[in-house]
Amino acid sequence: MITYLAKRIGRSLITLFFILSVVFILLRQMPIEGYFDNFDKLTEEQIQVGLTQLGLTEPMPAQLLNFFTNLFQGDLGMSRRYRANVAVTEILATKIPISIQLGSLSILVSLMVGLPMGILMTKNKGKMFDKLGTLFIVFIQAVPAMVYYLFIQLYGTTLLHVPLLFDASKPTCFILPVLSMSLGNIAYYGMWLRRYMVDESTKDYVKLAKAKGVSEGNIMRRHIFRNAFVPLIQYLPTSFLNTVVGSIYIESLYSIPGMGGLLVDVIKKNDNNMVQAIVLLYATVGVIGLLLGDILMATIDPRISLNKKGGGR
Amino acid sequence: MAAIRHKMSRQLEENITENMQNMSDEELFSFQTFQTEEGEKTAYSHYSYWKSTFASFRKNKISVFLVCLVLFILFFTLIQPYLPNQYDPNMVNNDPQTGVQYRNIAPGEQFWFGTNSIGQDLWSRIWTGTRNSLLIGISVACIEALIGIVAGVVWGYIRKTDWLFTEIYNILDNIPQTIILIMISYILKPGVKTLILAMCLTSWIQMARFIRNQVIMIRDREYNLASRCVGTPTHKIIFKNLLPYLVSVIMLRMALSVPAAIGNEVFITYIGLGLPTNIPSLGRLINEGRELMMSASLRYQLIFPTVVVSIVTISFYIIGNAFSDAADPKNHI
Q: In this complex, how many residue pairs, one in chain A and one in chain B, have their CB atoms less than 8 Å apart?
């Protein structure tokens, strides 16, 4: 187990290194106009001086080396144009908690609604509830999220008499953003749980349990649900960690000062340090989430072992 | 159904017993000569994969209707500009008497879907937008499928390439798609082609991974092992053994990537990086409508494009699922 983890973490670090390098090099391909506020008025000389100050005239490997040396010392640099000369970490520290709060609430809601929905759909397979649920899932999965987000904002604000824009001091302001964010996940959990549970319920061990006289509720809870939930649990850590990233749509629709639109903003402003820091955050979250998911799955399901190489092949 | 079948078989049984009672003993116990043609009859089956697929697809009435609907929409977006009395989607319409722009005219006789805030005809904008969005969606689905299948088969079938593709996957999957989309649209000229390229650049790996997982699952099944033992060349195994088995899942993924690409286009336009303003798309129309949605009388500018987008995306989603059910050989018997 420990050797496996060590190997896995080592590989993840290499992946992280590549991701950062790719993004770093891509960022340097952006048009240089972006680095200056008044590009048209500057002379060639001033531009060169500006670029030298930013360290952009050095050869690419030297720039990359610089970046990684600073990174290992825990220095992510300063923001340049988003908020001039404020440390990147400081900006992120104010924004991340808001996104986490919103995102975790939404995941809790989607689990609390999505899982019962999946179970009820399995129990009422082919009946009215199942059909309505499927309709809901098809709608949410197919239609671009923007469409129903807009209508929730449009009619939700008038129906619930909540303010249109976000205000952290009023808890009612959380309702609509959290609801909008949850719908997609509710559909996701409902759909997959139903599918896995329907698959499980035709298996032999369920027949045996029935023959033994185990009650219907017990079979559902102790046998089918537990087995059907294992594949879903793998994504739980990722989805919790991903809340750090925020939701671009929701946060900008309701003017929530979270992480959501930050990435787009800073790329447009050529704020390289900010972009790199956010990419590092995204990638780390993705890698850790995957690792935690695998570990969690192996703990819950004793049949899965992480050490066996390519067990399923 | 079962009851009818039961009844029928009982009737058949009765017929046979009746016939047998009428026959003499010599007739009943005489030797039958071996007839080669009769023997061949059972060995040959009339099963045709595509025929059965379409037969079972046709049974799903809703999907057949949706296919017709999508084909009709597709056809209509193509012929709409040539119909009489159509406005140019980019033309700003002015009142001929006063010379003032027709701003925010409610849907009516002259402008069927009304006009937008600068006096462009919403009806023709919606159809041009649908055409562009469908073009993007279908192109992305096809390119993604093509690259994804090739890469996925190589990734899954040739074990030596596994680590390489896995690393590429890890990297591509962890770079936020937004970054690549934004950078491509900055580095290249904005337009339909750029948008398609930007979307395909990240999404092919998902398709490839999906195909790879499927290939790994069926790569070592007995029939493939047998093929390899008798020396079937690799390309023949791939084209005759592996890919036909995957048709249903590939079609499903392709059908689902159309709504996904349309949704992506909406998103990219929303963050301000979509197509240039003179190329209408559903994403742009939704965004234009969003800016006006708070006044109830102008809400039609949001509702029309959202309804069109919903119809198109839901249709593709349902058709894809129905077709993949129909194309699955397990459902043919």
A: 110
Could you tell me the maximum CA-CA distance found in chain B, to the nearest angstrom?
A: 105
Residue B158: strand pairing partners: none
pLDDT for residue A307: 61
Per CB-CB distance under 8 Å, the chain A contacts of B314 are 138-139, 142-143
CA distance B227 to B219: 11
Beta-bridge partner residues of B101: B94
Q: Decide if the complex's ipTM is over 0.85.
A: no
3-state secondary structure of B66: helix
Cβ pair A149, A165 in contact under 8 A = no
Task: Check A144 against B259: CB less than 8 A apart.
Answer: yes
Closest Cβ opposite residue B186 in set A22, A30, A249: A30
- Mean pLDDT, residues A13-31: 82
Residue B65 C-alpha from the chain's centroid: 15
Read off the DSSP letter of residue A83.
S
Burial of B233 per CB tally in 10 Å (0-12, 13-18, 19+): exposed
Closest-CA residue to B261 (of B157, B149, B142)? B142
**Range among A15-29, A204-218, A237-251, B19-33 rated most confident:** A204-218
Give SS3 for A199. Answer: helix
User: For residues B180 and B186, what is the distance between their CA atoms, to the nearest angstrom?
Assistant: 10
Q: How far apart are CA A183 and CA A78, in angstroms?
A: 37
> Which residue of chain A has the CA closest to B314?
A142
Q: Touching check for A31 and chain B: CB below 8 Å?
A: yes
Continuous H helices in chain A: 2-27, 44-53, 60-72, 88-123, 128-142, 145-160, 175-201, 204-212, 216-218, 226-233, 236-242, 248-253, 262-268, 272-300
Q: Which residues on B lie below 8 Å from A269 (Cβ)? A: none
Angstrom distance (rounded) from CA B191 to CA A135: 35
**Integer Cα distance of A281 and A96 in angstroms:** 11
